[in-house]
Specification:
heterodimer; A: about 190 residues; B: mainly alpha; about 75% helix; elongated
Chain lengths: ~190, ~170
Amino acid sequence: MTELPMTHDVLTERAPAKRSVNFITVLAALILASMALIFGLGLRHQQQTQPTEGMAPLFTLQTLDGQEIALEALRGQVVVINFWASWCGPCRDEAAELEAAWQQYKDKDVIFLGIAYTDTERNAQAYLKEFGITYPNGLDYKTKISAQYRITGVPETFIVDRQGHISEFVMTPLKRVQLSAMIERALAKGTQP
Amino acid sequence: MNRLLKIGVMLLCLAIALSAVTLSAFAQDDPRRPVTDDEVNAVSKKLYCPVCENITLDTCGTLACAQWREEVRILLSEGKTPEQVIENFVMRFGDRVVGTPADPTLRALALITPWLLSALVLLATGAVFLRWRKERPAAAPSAPEAKAATSVRTFAEYRARIEADLAARR
């Protein structure tokens, strides 16, 4: 005599576990989505480049001699924003050139702003003293300004025209002649805003 | 000669006393303490290079990292605790020095996702455990009970089958 196959209602016995399984699926989907978002945002962040046109991001620089300079208050002047660091070799190559250009343009509606990226005050001061730099310089507190300008290294220089638009951007050490030409182009763009 | 020797000894004693006073005064003025490389490295391990990607200060060979390590040494020598040094760096250079993403959305997600992941693992473990607890009595009943239940069901089914066969023959 053969034994009859036993029927077993699997579905009815497993029914209570269904809700927890569903909840876990939702949670897993949520995690996958957030991981995808992290990856996507990271990728987007990597692909973001320095602004080369449009309005220059606004900031207020606390200079090493205690002044506060707001970019917005400099409308009507051409602004040369130079990101540098005392530990950066190429920055040393351009330091004297920048100071020479500043001496040439400081009375011609042009202002230079030096922003020390991830630098300590002691080292930044020593650097400025070493190269005899006289234009306003300040530390990039919490690296907020460099994040706004999405710099990828130092030195990087932005020329902002009288209307507050980014006129030019250079990510190599500058020579005085090159910088002068850029400033002249920005000056030629217009007089008052 | 003897007198000269006495004067010499006196002058020497005076010089020693003066230098001791000067040195002790200097030591009181400078509250810095010597900091070992190990102490600097212990803090540097928790800080990231401002230039390179995902490299901590203690292993980075750039000048930027060398300067930051020196800054760590100075802060430690001024009596700051490692936690205070890290806090000081975060205050000055932002969250990125401790490896937190600069993008606010990315930072929020990076903070939330590990917790979500942990919750998922915990829930999955809990669900598996509960299911296992529920299924155990049904799937693996005690041996005599299972045998009895099976034999009752089998007998009833055999009987029904025999009755059906007999009915068909009639």
